[in-house]
Amino acid sequence: MTAATHGSPSSTSTAQRSSGSAHSKSPREPFVNTGNLDHKVRIIGVGRVGGPAAMIVSDDLGKSWQQVDINAHAAMAFNVHFFDRNHGIIAAASDTDVARSHARIITTFDGGKTWTTAYESKRPYELTWKISFPTPDVGYVTVQSYAPDPAATGRFVVKTVDGGRSWTEIPLSSDPKVRQFGVAFIDENRGWIGATPAGFQTVDGGKTRTSANSGNAVNRIRIIRYPEGTSAFAIGVSVYRAIIEGSKQSVERSGNGLGADQVLREKSGASLPDGLDAGWALRVGPLKLRWVAQRTEQV
User: Fold this and answer.
1) Which residue range is the domain that position 17 belongs to?
2) For 185-226, what is each residue's pLDDT tens digit?
3) What is the C-alpha separation between 57 and 189, in angstroms, rounded?
4) Do 229 and 247 form a contact (C-beta atoms < 8 A)?
5) Is position 69 within any domain?
6) Among 150, 171, 194, 269, which one has the highest count of C-beta atoms within 10 angstroms of its own C-beta?
7) Element housing 219 (H / E)
8) pLDDT-wise least confident of 154-158, 174-178, 239-243
9) Picking from 13-27, 159-173, 266-280, 284-298, which range would have the lowest pLDDT averaged per residue?
10) Starting from the edge strand earliest in sequence, which strands make up the sheet with 239-245, in order?
């Protein structure tokens, strides 16, 4: 996972948007460049699945790289988010052996010279995966479970409200078939979590969750803001696009054209497909029952 930042190693820029952040303004470090005010750019990468853990840094747009040793603090590393040149977090795992691994988040306040463990799960067979920080204080990280024991049903997301210094587990599901992947929040409360066999959405910061019709095994979600509104793109088994305009939200699955769609407007209490509740206007594709949904009530 790489992160390109202006002025500091912050995945609130390009790479962090690709992993789910709506906070598009990167911390910037100004400097005088041949008589002109300019901004330094830092690129950070971390890896890898299966270990060993590594972090690499470039201050010259990728022409050269320096490696930062994090093996004493993480066995595997999956995602990175820096707030400024000094303060950052890495989504990691405690062991390369999944049977002994615990989900772990490490944090630094000196640009990677020293690290502390900000969060570690108490359950084996777990690791972290993706990070989303919709604001500098509020962030979310998905926690994956590979536990073979069918009684180990708890599935979690962790949340911070202090910029990654401390984390709280949020129960997501008690279905052992669920495995979390990508995560994206457009603000402190509204966001999506990609998972198998289907994803989740929340409008209250994770206090409650409902099914999301954004597809199976969504691993990467990118949020893009533009003058006319906000778009989100999710990739998993299929590619989906969500358009958020003020209080309205629509979700659209990519693929072949839907042809002459039939528009159905359901009233409260009417029968709706799984994952959709009353208040949705549904356009049903005539061929493969692919949904294009536009919600007409406040989100």
Assistant:
1) 1-174
2) 989 998 889 999 988 989 899 999 888 877 788 898 888 877
3) 32
4) no
5) yes
6) 194
7) none
8) 239-243
9) 284-298
10) 220-226, 229-235, 239-245, 248-253, 291-295, 280-284, 262-265
